[in-house]
Amino acid sequence: MMKPIAALCMAAWMAGCANPAQQSADALAQQAEAQIELAKLRDKEARAEYNDQAVYLGLIGRMQQEGLYYASLAHIDAYQQRFGTAPPLQLMRAAALRETGQDDAALQAYRDLLPTDRAAAAHHGIGLVLGRQGDFVRAAVALRQAATLDPVNAQVANDLGYALMRGGALQDARIPVMQALQLDGSSPRIVSNAAVWLWASGKRAEATAMMQRASMPEPTRAAVRKEGDRVARAALAHERSPAAKPLAMNAARNTTP
Fold first, then answer.
1. pTM here?
2. Which helix (H) or strand (E) holds 182?
């Protein structure tokens, strides 16, 4: 018969001194349960995000900011099936179509937005599509209309200046280029565009000083100089063409596609 003291020690050992293998198994089981609960919580939070219209729209916008345009198209379809459509969603769809190379569909999507309160962004988008296609005259038309509707938008002014430069209207580009620079001089893209204009206009010392102040790396400076030379050639060809009309006059016409 086991003595009382021995029995007590045996009970204590069984209750609190389990073998290491059993302790490890228990710890793993607890960890697995915690991970399952965490996954459930995250899934619940994700469902809550996708069930909230404003939050879901924000998530789609974030996808596009990160360049996930193909994924954003899928989520735009999902959002539309659940909540219907609205101009902000239509604008995101147009941008996704543009950035995935679906130019015709993007142009139509932007045209559909022209009667809405997103008209400025729609004209801007049309200008971007046409510029990528190399039609800088019509791009400038659309971008000038965007600038008229949204005059303090630095990106619109910058894109208008670039379209004018590429179309050969170098001097017409000066005002929108400099407006963009003063509206948002911290944007590397805008500073680069201003440096291109200076270089193409023969103000090479000023262009070089601007690039130095912006601490542009040498590959970027070389690209600016190369683009400036191309713009200068386009301006010269434009001046020499007897049939050429000032791009500013063309851009004043209401010929948005």
1. 0.74
2. helix 174-183
Q: Angle 87-99/103-113 helices, nearest 10 degrees?
A: 160
Q: Which of these ranges, 20-34, 70-84, 174-188, has the smallest mean pLDDT?
A: 20-34
Joined tokens for residue 205: 């010392």
Q: Report how far residue 51's alpha carbon sits from residue 45's, in angstroms, rounded to the nearest whole number.
A: 10
Q: Which tokens in the block code for residue 158?
A: 């910058």
Question: Domain residue spans in the chain?
Answer: 151-257
Region of 19 on the Ramachandran plot (φ > 0 left; ψ -120 to 50 alpha; else beta): beta
Tokens of 243: 């049939």
Distance separating alpha carbons of residues 10 and 17, to the nearest angstrom? 10
* Structure token pair of residue 53: 């219209």
For the record, the structure tokens of 185 come out as: 């001089």
With CA atoms as reference, report the closest residue to 256 among 125, 155, 132: 125
Residue of 53, 117, 113 lying closest to 80 (CA atoms):
53
Q: Is the pLDDT of residue 91 over 70?
A: yes
Quote the CA–CA distance of 244 and 170 in Å, as a whole number.
13
- As a three-state string, the secondary structure of 14-81 is HHHCCCHHHHHHHHHHHHHHHHHHHHHHHHHHHHHHHHCHHHHHHHHHHHHHCCCHHHHHHHHHHHHH
